[in-house]
Amino acid sequence: MVTAHFHHKPSLIFKRFEFNTCFQEERERVTVFVTALRSIAEYCEYKEDILPDMLRDRIVCGIRDK
User: Fold this and answer.
1) What confidence tens digit (pLDDT) does each residue in 47-61 have?
2) Which of 2, 9, 40, 66 makes the best surface tag, with the fewest CB within 10 Å?
């Protein structure tokens, strides 16, 4: 019971905010950026039919162009 008290489910709203404001860091590899997005998306509760589009859009918007 004690462990259940300390293991809260992440906030859906916060995780969606984190997902939608995620940008590739300077010198961060694309694979690391995409992996981070996928990890965050696990908690966003996006339906399976839109998740690929959400990931694609976030990659396009969040990737550094240099």
Assistant:
1) 999 999 999 999 999
2) 66
